[in-house]
């Protein structure tokens, strides 16, 4: 794996950033242009391309938005090979892990095309603009919000009246859950790990209680906040519970959250955005700190097809 320095790829990648107390600090995304109706980047069908990885929960957000909005025909995708190499995220010459957009062999080659030489980590997702030959954004939250607002005139998943509630849930879930599992898994001290795990499960307990009287995070409307929570839930039992030591409880031990997650998974197109085996193998890949032998556990057994009390189909609407 590596990092870009002034537009050139370097194999030596810095270790995950931690503060003086050993707590994980996620690096910020730095390419953050915007798609707008009247701006340089307009929401035109067929103009943009997504670079994603099956194993990445941040990229998963964008695949969920693409599926729920029915953008498969107008927003193309390249999937990296499941495991990174010294070249970072890479592609095959052909097949399901090839790049049909630019034909690159590694994602860093996409970053190298930026007019302003890029310095930073080579991450997914990437939203690429065919017209300008530039990356629009490598920040998953921005990409998803642009998809849900600029590519969907109805704003069905980001209604204006619910934006304050959506943003409240997004901030809480990002810090304590989405990034919270990484704060646990990449902690370098017992104290940092303990704090992250307590934050994570306190928040899951809070969401569980909320879902006891609400179908979704904002009440009875499926919104961006739900789209951003699901990728972590999908990976929880097969990856974070063991690989990141988030093992106070499983997702399946939360009746409301487990029902909610399965109802979301049952939405049209969502199952096609998830590969549980790739996620499990990815998070249990060899790591000198977390899994030095690279042994992938056989379990757990998880049945996402169990019937649910919730039915989100009507909430998702129609793309016709």
Question: What attributes does this structure have?
Answer:
single chain; 320 residues; alpha+beta; Glutaredoxin; Glutathione S-transferase Yfyf (Class Pi), Chain A, domain 2; 2 domains; 10 helices
Describe it for me?
With 320 residues, the protein is of the alpha+beta class. It has two domains: 3-150, 3-Layer(aba) Sandwich (Glutaredoxin), CATH 3.40.30; 160-316, Glutathione S-transferase Yfyf (Class Pi), Chain A, domain 2 (Up-down Bundle). The chain is 36% helix and 8% strand. The chain is built from ten helices and seven strands. It has helices spanning 57-68, 108-111, 140-150, 163-178, 180-185, 190-211, 224-243, 255-265, 276-283, 313-316, and strands spanning 3-5, 8-10, 48-52, 76-79, 120-121, 126-129, 134-137. Strands 4-3-6-7 form a four-stranded mixed beta sheet. A three-stranded antiparallel beta sheet has the order 2-1-5. Helix 6 packs across helix 8 (255-265). The N and C termini lie far apart (42 Å).
Question: Sheet bearing the most strands, described?
Answer: 4 strands, mixed
Q: Structural class, please?
A: alpha+beta
CATH class of the largest domain: Mainly Alpha
Segments where pLDDT lies below 50 for 5+ residues? none
> What general outline do the C-alpha atoms trace?
globular
């Amino acid at each position: 794996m590596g990092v870009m320095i002034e537009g050139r790829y370097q194999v030596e990648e810095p270790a995950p950033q931690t503060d003086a107390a050993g707590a994980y600090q996620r690096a910020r995304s730095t390419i953050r242009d915007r798609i707008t109706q009247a701006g340089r980047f307009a929401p035109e069908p067929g103009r943009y391309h997504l670079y994603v990885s099956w194993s990445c929960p941040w990229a998963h957000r964008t695949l969920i938005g693409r599926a729920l909005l029915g953008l498969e025909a107008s927003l193309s995708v390249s999937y990296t090979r499941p495991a990174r190499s010294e070249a970072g995220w890479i592609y095959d010459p052909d097949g399901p892990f090839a790049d049909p957009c630019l034909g690159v062999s590694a994602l860093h080659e996409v970053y190298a095309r930026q007019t302003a030489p890029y310095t930073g980590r080579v991450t997914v997702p990437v939203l690429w603009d065919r017209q300008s030959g530039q990356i629009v954004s490598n920040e998953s939250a921005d990409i998803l919000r642009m998809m849900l607002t600029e590519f969907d005139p109805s704003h069905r998943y980001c209604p204006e009246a619910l934006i304050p509630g959506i943003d409240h849930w997004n901030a809480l879930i990002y810090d304590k859950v989405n990034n919270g599992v990484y704060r646990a898994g990449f902690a370098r001290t017992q104290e940092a790990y303990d704090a992250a795990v307590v934050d994570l499960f306190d928040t899951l307990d809070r969401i569980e209680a909320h879902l006891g009287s609400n179908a979704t995070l904002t009440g009875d409307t499926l919104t961006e906040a739900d789209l951003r929570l699901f990728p972590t839930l999908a990976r929880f039992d097969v990856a974070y519970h063991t690989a990141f030591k988030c093992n106070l409880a499983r997702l399946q031990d939360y009746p409301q959250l487990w029902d909610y997650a399965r109802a979301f998974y049952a939405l049209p197109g969502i199952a096609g955005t998830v590969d549980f085996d790739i996620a499990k193998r990815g998070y249990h890949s060899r790591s000198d700190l977390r899994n030095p032998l690279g042994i992938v556990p056989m379990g757990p057994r998880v049945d996402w097809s169990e019937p649910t009390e919730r039915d989100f189909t009507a909430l998702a609407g129609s793309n016709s």
